[in-house]
Amino acid sequence: MVVAKQKKKATNGAAASAKPEKKIAVQKKVIAKKVDAIVPVAPKKVVKVVKKKQQAETPKKTKKAAKPNDEEDEEEELPEDLKDFKKAASAGKLFDSDDDMGDEEEDDDEIGIKEGPLGSDDEDDEDDIDMDDDFGSDEDEDDDEGEDSEEDEEGLPIEKKTKKLDKKMAKIAAEGEEELQLNITGADRFELPTVEEVEEEIQTAPNLTSMKQRIQDVIQVLGDFKNRRQEGKSRSDYIEVLTKDLCSYYGYNEYLMNKFQQIFPAGAELLEFLEANDQPRPVTIRTNTLKTRRGELAKSLINRGMNVDPAAKWTKVGLVVYDTQVPVGATPEYLAGHYMIQGLCSLLPVMALAPQPGERVLDMAAAPGGKTSHVAALMKNSGVLFANDPSKERCTAVIGNLHRLGVNCSIVSSLDGREYAKIMPQGFDRILLDAPCSGTGVIWKDQSVKTSRDSQDVQKRHTLQRELILSAIDALDANSPTGGYLVYSTCSVLVEENEAVVNYALQKRHCKLVPTGLDIGVEGFTKFREYRFHPTLSLTRRYYPHVHNIDGFFVAKIKKMSNTKNPKPEQAGDKKEGETDETDDKKKKQKKEKKNGKKGEKTKKNGGEAMEVDGEEGGEKKDDDSTTASKQRSLKKKKNADKNQRKGEVAREDDGFNTKGEVRYEPKQKFKHKKVNRRLLARTSAKAMKKKRRKVMTKGYSGATTSD
Amino acid sequence: MRPLTEEEQQSVFGKLAKYIGDNVTHLIERADGDYVFRLHKERVYYCSENLLKMAACISRDLLLSFGTCLGKFTKSRKFLLHITALDYIAPYAKCRIWLKPNAEQQFLYGNNVLKSGVLRMSEGADRAEGVVVYSSTDTPLGFGVTAKGTSDTKRSDPTALVLLHQADLGEYLRKEETLT
Question: Which residues of A are catalytic?
């Protein structure tokens, strides 16, 4: 009977919900029939009502969400009902008056209606709108419970109920899966918006979540482009949209984003890298082995209240600080010089350098002194350590740190790094060059790098790096018994500043790459886009924040083979095809001749560049030994002009990979006085104007004009 | 960079002797090589001779520091000993004083030490004697000058001033620019 009535209500739907009186009457009847078993169910239904009311307020989009919610509620509901039922059954009473009271009160609180069943009726009606089945199931539940309560039996009816519930749950699960399938197939084809649309969206109303979603979609499409692409859209369209989205989501400028896309072609890795750039790396410290040992230091720091642990298995001096109650840079141990705060990546170049006690070592860019003091610690305060930094202000930090850490064997200077090749040529056993770079590996420390780097910036830096690495190699002593090593490192991931500079050094000087001796790290690029580097570049090491959890870094170890400035012929990678022994002979002959002495050396240095000219020259020279002095001068002038022009062209093309590139020499602009036309001068010069004015004035006085 | 003159030597060694007494000879004549004192830009540096020869290659205004800086000469030619000299003074110190943990922090901030902060003190110290300050864990913290002799300190009340601060490790943070 109850079933029939409730079904009628279902059909009426909205109409029924508008008549509270009728409801109350009905519910009273329902209460009469169902004794107390309703109670365990009611609170659940109350919750459902509230939820549904909230859903009704939210936009239509959530209608789909509503359905799963319903299903979830239902699933939650049923087992709990069962639990309650089982509990009650086990306790020996199906009906607990106290519980009822409590639940009814709950109902009151939540809906503001006094009787529990009222809530259930509302729910039933709303159920009708969404899913008839659920309504039916509720009905069944109520009926079952009602029947059970009436019959007051245990065992079999409960078993029946469990079976029904199981079936119900299975049905709901199946429906859920079906829906999921529908959803997936529905969103199969990702619709790519045009670049203009994307730009507009970014400028007017950037929506981060939709951007993120679009980024992931595009990356997914690019992952299997053939099958997942949209008709009519090319790969570059997708990549453009991706670039724009990434730039605005993470806050980069387009130049940097393009560079990163070239280094990380796979979209997923690029995302990881960008995410890692926004998160800080853990705080790490290095124990100063001149004053203490790692174990002792760890003990005393833990006593102070810092939580430290050995940082990595490849280092014996590194400690990572998880959390601390005291400031890391102000403990008495820090002041006593027992440790130095530095990133783990800073340990790597010094480990690669491996300075021996008693050697002469130079650190060309020493500030703030972390790596320098590490070198001194490895040398055990013997030998000589030059710590150089071009900026005097930052040198005070170096001096302070060296004194604090107890280093006596150091000399601190503030020269330009390029000067060391001139004051102490071939004077060092080992050199550490931690070159100034664009800082793309430590973006988390300085977010401004994201927007302030562009091609001019990077070009300036890699030009400086090339000069520095060459002067560093010149300052090395190739014949030293224990050394002749240069370690070049940067905190950048860009290829122009790393592999390209090392490649340039290999071509310009007689040196070779040796294994760094570091266990961790990714091998450096031997080929990048259309550029090809020397194959030994695979001995260099790269580090990424998303792979190793240290700053982006690059380390290369170079050994100087001989003290001559010229690269060995086999080393020079840019020999022209036509070069044969003949030209070499020609070179030698030219060398002998006085006037071509300098030119000969230059040709050797510049590789194939000036070869042609010298070839011509050589030819001419051979033919006509007795050219007049003036002729020789004019020939020289021409040759120099050609060379300068070619230099200019080359320098302009310098994109970091053109390793032939020379430093551009811009001659001072001579100020030429322009010769003005005499007649024009007469008309417009100040003198002439003065004369004219005087004439007019005198005329005006003498000859009365009618202009008054 | 030049060697010290007679007067300068007097003042430097006199100051050092205040803290380490006759052990100054240990600094001047060492078994493991010749160590020298040099004056460069009003600061006194202590280093070995080979280091000195290397440092001579660099021009005067670009050379900033070599070896260890012991201290500097003021405008009125008095010699001030810096905290950077602690590594050489601490092993040869004549009088030492150990501080309690609470007083350590105070001393590292640059304050003087009261009797309540003193853990123990070496015997036979007079008034106005150079003392090296140690923490309870036996790490040198700095140096100072006694306000009273050891016997007087024993008798005085807990709030009496015992040690006048001269230099402490905290200066590495506070006075980083002026240390050099």
Answer: 491
- Chain segment A277-309, per-residue pLDDT in tens: 999 999 999 999 999 999 999 999 999 999 999
Pair A47, A70: CB distance under 8 Å: no
Q: Which residues, at least 6 apart from B6, have a Cβ–Cβ distance to it below 8 Å?
A: none
SS3 percent helix, strand, coil of chain B, rounded to 5, is 35, 35, 30
Question: pLDDT category, A554, cuts 50, 70, 90?
Answer: very high
> What are A87's two structure tokens?
């509990």
Nearest residue to A525 (alpha-carbon basis) of A561, A494, A488, A480: A494
CA distance A54 to chain B (A): 59
**A475 with A421: CB under 8 angstroms?**
yes
Say how many CB pairs under 8 Å bridge A and B: 82
Closest to A270 in 3D by CA, of A454, A545, A523: A545
Instruction: Using the structure block, give the residue that is written with the tokens 């509901």.
Output: A77
Check CB contact under 8 Å for A424 and B57.
Answer: yes
Chain B contact residues (CB < 8 Å to A): 47-48, 50-51, 54-55, 57-58, 62-69, 84, 87, 104, 108, 135, 137, 139-141, 169-170, 172-173, 176-177, 179-180
Residues at the binding site of A are 365-371, 389, 416, 434
pTM over 0.80: no
Beta strands A485-490 and A384-388 are: unpaired
Interface of A with B in 595-634 (CB under 8 A): none
Q: What residue type is assigned to position B127 of the chain?
A: R
Which amino acid, one-letter code, is at A239? I
DSSP summary character for residue A231: T
Could you report the per-residue pLDDT of A386-440, keeping only the tens digit for each? 999 999 999 999 999 999 999 999 999 999 988 899 998 888 999 999 999 999 9
Low-confidence ranges of chain B (pLDDT < 70): 180
Q: Is the per-residue pLDDT at A574 higher than 90? A: no
User: What per-residue confidence (pLDDT) applies to A205?
Assistant: 77
Angle between helices A2-12 and A20-33 (to 10 degrees): 160
If residue B117 lies in a helix (H) or strand (E), which one and from where to where? none
Angle, alpha carbons A308-A310-A316 (nearest 5°) = 135
Name the band, by pLDDT with cuts 50, 70 and 90, for residue A659.
low
pLDDT digits (tens, 9 = 90+) for A142-157: 444 444 444 445 568 8
For residue A63, what pLDDT band results from cuts at 50, 70 and 90? very low
The angle that helices A370-379 and A392-404 make with each other, rounded to 10 degrees, is 40
The answer to whether the beta carbons of residues A405 and A340 sit under 8 Å apart is yes
- For residue A644, the model assigns a pLDDT of 83
Whole-angstrom CA distances from A431 to A428, A543, A665 are: 7, 21, 28
Asked whether the CA dihedral A415, A421, A422, A425 is positive or negative, the reply is positive
Q: Is A404 on the interface with B (CB under 8 A)?
A: yes
ipTM attached to this prediction = 0.95
How many Å apart are CA A623 and CA A513, to the nearest integer? Answer: 44
Per-residue burial over B55-91, b = 16 or more CB atoms within 10 Å of its CB, e = otherwise: beebeeebbbbbbbbbbbbeeeeebebbbbbbbbbbe
State the DSSP code for A668: P
Q: Suggest the residue from A409, A419, A424, A429 to mutate for an interface test with chain B (most B CBs closer than 10 A).
A: A409
Q: What sign for the dihedral angle of Cα A64, A69, A75, A77?
A: negative
The 8 Å CB, 24+ separation contacts for A628-631 are none
Span between the terminal Cα atoms of chain A, in Å: 121
Structure tokens at A696: 């007019």
Distances (CA, A) of B52 to A66, A132, A386, B60, B81: 82, 96, 12, 13, 21
CB-CB under 8 Å, A411 with B84: no
